[in-house]
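Anyone able to model this chain together with glycyl-adenosine-5'-phosphate?
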Amino acid sequence: MEKIVSLCKRRGFVYPGSEIYGGFQGFYDFGPLGVEMKNNLKQLWWKWMTKEHDNIVGIDGAIITNPKVWEASGHVKSFVDPLSECKKCHHRFKTDDLGDKNKCPDCGGALTEPKQFNILVPTQLGVIEGEKTNAYLRGEACQTIYLDYKNVLNTTRLKIPFGICQIGKAFRNEVTPGNFLFRQREFEQWDLQWFCHSKDTEKWFEFWKKERMNWYKSIFTNPKNLGFYKHEKLAHYAKMAFDIIYEKSPCEIKEIEGIHWRGDWDLSGHSKFSGQDLSYIDPETNEKFIPQIVETSGGVDRTFLFLLIDAYTEEKDPAGDGASRIVLKLHPKIAPYQVAVFPLLKNKPELIKKAQKIYQDLRKEFNVAWDDRGNIGKRYFAQDEIGTPFCITIDFETLEKETVTVRDRDTMKQERIKIKELENYLKEKLNE
Ligand code: GAP
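re: yes, here you go
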């Protein structure tokens, strides 16, 4: 974990939030490479959900909603973590995380009885003191999907079963934020809410469990590190819950995504609190019912971090006299850059001109890095460390024969490719 945190800072993947003010616990910023990688990841998820599945559409809902939403959802009452406080040093702990529930892990002092601590983040809106409206930042992104469920039904031709998906921020006043991106106070979730008939819920639950696992397996470097965990203790809304976990997590947090059978909890709650009828009428049978919901709710930031951990490799560089290299063996479509372009020498204008032309052409299709510093070995080293799958060198043979060398990140093998075939060559490789 320390190596990943340091790589993230050093190469511009993730920075501590508000760092010049000494930081702010549980908040992080994504740097230039981090934002590219996160965007690639979100685009892959979005495309897979909405373009590669039938009957799924997306929304982008507001972060602040009418505060009644959180009463109806049960979060005001039940979104609580038991908290224990040390009577001596006054440090606070999530009771569930404590080995000895009576002794402070920091100073050995006695702990208070656990108190229920609500982790919704409150906020106030309005300008006149005393007349401000209390609201909450959303504690789980999915609630907006339930609020828009009727609008989506009325404005599309979807019929049950169908899904609504969303990628968006959620906020939690975590008692113990920590372990880098794993437990933050502001984080991003990717959710699918699948609306179905009660007779089919079990079938869809199994379908989505398998489907989501297959997706994660398709993007992790070592899919064997992924597994399922069945929850015995359930959240207030869930009837059955499985987590997709990363077995080799460097800390106690292994969960990447939860697959939840939410039943009719949410739509019934919102029907009751809003006074609106949120039931569905089957156009063929005229049956009227509140749909059941199967949810897949994953953490974008946790996936991001687990992917880095899974891809991080230190190995001997056979080309470098036994020296070691750090390689992020990220899925090529997720890496911040897909390609890097190097002119062999910085002081040869004819090489720079040719390399610039190739760089500009490739940028129309791929995320491309340009590097003309130091020697080629150092440039490979710098690109391996950030996971760039292909490095292209423009040398004197390029000027004569219209070919370049393409070097593969993982095998370190080099191939000579004609410039006019380069784009197709890279596209094929990226889709392998
Ligand atoms: N709508 C259901 C829901 O929110 P959850 O298991 O509480 O379920 C879903 O959250 C995912 O969000 C988790 O699997 C995890 O990846 C991510 N997540 C939850 N709390 C987080 C936190 N404090 N920091 C980072 N990611 C978090």
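The longest strand covers residues 186-196.
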